[in-house]
Design brief:
Blueprint (H helix, E strand, L loop, with lengths): L2 E4 L2 E4 L3 H12 L4 E4 L14 H8 L6 E4 L3 E4 L8 H4 L9 H11 L6 H15 L13 H13 L3 E3 L24 H11 L3 E3 L2 E9 L2 E9 L2 E6 L2 E4 L5 H10 L9 E12 L13 E3 L7 E5 L4 H6 L6 H9 L4 E9 L5 E5 L2 E5 L4 H20 L2 E5 L7 E3 L4 H8 L6 E4 L2 E2 L26 E3 L14 H14 L4
Parallel strand pairs: 1-10, 2-3, 2-11, 3-7, 4-17, 5-20, 11-22
Antiparallel strand pairs: 4-5, 6-13, 8-9, 9-10, 12-15, 12-18, 12-21, 14-15, 16-17, 18-19
Helix pairs in contact: 1-7, 1-13, 5-13, 11-12
Length: about 475
């Protein structure tokens, strides 16, 4: 048995883009339905267990495997709030180098800094995080370490803008769960529900249905029961993998053939010559941005015993016991690289299959920045490092860094993850099988179909993309003609 739901505007997906659009439209008095494939988690029922968060709030139990010569996994949220529920709450404005690139390549002024900044200011005000960088009072030891590296080597280390409450510790699970930050669930979704937004969770969009060059319905399942949702306007906000997958399922694989642009994250475990105790401190507040123009960022990462040991499955029991006995001396850092190559996103029998090949240019960059950063760390008190390698993963101070990384940085020896997927259905000036939305987020083929999530970004952002996604969603949603 099937049933119908009718509304003026249907938003599919509740992450950064979908929640922003929902708030703007509900504030304007529009009749909006927001559907989300995953569950809703109440604020008093936050998932603090490492395994619980992976199982319940992440797609495919935490990591979607990527077919690659490297060990490579891609992660994304699957719950109300999407990636904003599970991430660290970083809210960067879009780097100038990226905005300039977009304006130049698309021959537009839409992405002028003042235009994006205006919308960024609006969404951060709604989120209650207007003065993000000014909230840093007490800093964690790993952040102070980066500040020391910056001062000693005369490199730029930026303050990190976070929507994190000042009294929270670093005991986070793969980012900051909802109670630790100013959440879009509370500030955008729940606030909008009071004003009339209809939110339907456990509702999975299966197919887009058309009639007379318009989208007429979405076929979906709600708790495994088939339903149809009709609307005047449809806004896709399913995310970097699910928006293109829904499009492929609806219009065929050849309709869209763009790749997924990603940031590669490579994690370094560092043992210092004193107890650093980062698991008892605040979330990190510093990031090395000296190399942003080269697509590289370096930062601490959330540290707790469960998540740290999950990254050490290659070690034997004796090594793990030694680490456990001196855990207070360890911290974790990330080298984040804007990948030159895309992840291929394949629809095989309505299942997502990801594949990737690391470029030679990226390998050269990794050797360079592994060498540089490890040199900085040893110079400021590091004794030993655990590198994201399958073989020869222990690095000590007496080793020749250049020779070590020349020998060990090769594709099949790397362990990587990515949680920032972008540009998989990107906007452009002309329709092609890579650009199916225009530079205002509107479908070239269907005048009542829009997209506001990370999939339409013209390229990756180098920085964490949440602020960019929300700013662009706000801009697109304001410019939709609702007549």
């Amino acid at each position: 048995m099937t049933k119908d739901i009718n509304c003026e505007i249907l938003i599919i997906g509740s992450g950064a883009g979908g929640s922003t659009a929902a708030k703007y439209l509900t504030d304007k008095g529009r009749d909006v339905v927001l559907i989300e494939e995953g569950n809703r988690f109440d604020k008093d029922n936050v998932l603090n267990s490492f395994s619980d968060v992976l199982k319940k709030a992440w797609r495919q139990g935490g990591i979607i495997p990527v077919i690659s010569k490297s060990k490579f996994g891609f992660g994304e949220g699957k719950c109300l709030g999407g990636g904003t529920f599970i991430n660290g709450g970083l809210m960067w404005t879009t780097p100038d180098i990226i905005l300039d690139k977009w304006n130049k390549e698309l021959n537009t002024t839409i992405f002028k800094k003042e235009n994006i900044s205006l919308n960024f200011d609006e969404v951060t005000k709604n989120l209650g995080t207007e003065n993000l960088k000014n909230n840093i009072n007490i800093e964690s030891s790993d952040s102070i370490k980066l500040k020391e590296i910056g001062e000693k080597n005369k490199i730029y280390v930026a303050k990190v803008p976070k929507s994190i409450n000042s009294d929270n510790t670093n005991k986070l699970t793969l980012g900051s769960v909802r109670k630790n930050k100013n959440s879009v669930i509370d500030k955008f979704i729940l606030d909008s529900e009071v004003k009339g937004l209809r939110v339907i969770t456990n509702c999975n969009a299966k197919k887009i249905l058309t009639q007379n060059n318009l989208i007429s319905h979405i076929e979906a399942t709600l708790n495994n029961e088939k339903i149809y949702i009709s609307a005047k306007k449809f806004i896709l906000a399913c995310g970097a993998t699910q928006t293109p997958m829904l499009i492929k399922k609806s219009f065929g694989n050849n309709y869209l053939n763009s790749g997924l642009e990603v940031h590669l994250n490579l994690r370094i475990g560092v043992k210092f010559n004193y107890e650093i105790n980062v698991d008892k401190e605040l979330m990190f507040s510093r990031q090395i941005q000296e190399y942003l123009d080269d697509g590289v960022l370096i930062m601490p990462t959330s540290f707790n015993k469960s998540s740290f040991f999950a990254s050490l499955n290659k070690l034997n029991n004796e090594d793990l016991l030694q680490i456990e006995n001196s855990l207070n001396s360890y911290a974790s850092f990330i080298i984040q690289l804007q990948s030159e190559n895309h992840i291929n996103l394949n629809n095989i029998n309505n299942n997502i299959v990801l594949s990737y090949n690391l470029s030679s240019k990226d390998l050269i960059k990794l050797k360079k920045y592994f060498t540089k950063f490890c040199e900085f760390l040893f110079d400021t008190g590091a004794l030993e490092m655990i590198l994201p390698f399958n073989k020869n993963y222990i690095l000590t101070k007496n080793m020749n860094l250049k020779d070590y990384f020349d020998q060990n940085v090769y594709q099949s020896n790397l362990e990587m993850v990515s949680v920032h997927g972008m540009s998989s259905a990107k906007m452009g000036n002309n329709k092609s099988n890579k650009t199916i939305f225009d530079i205002e987020g509107k479908s070239f083929d269907f005048k009542n179909l829009y997209s506001v999530d990370s999939s339409i970004l013209p390229s990756s952002t180098i920085e964490s993309p949440q602020g960019t996604i929300m700013s662009l969603s706000n801009l697109i949603t304001k410019n939709i003609n609702y007549n």
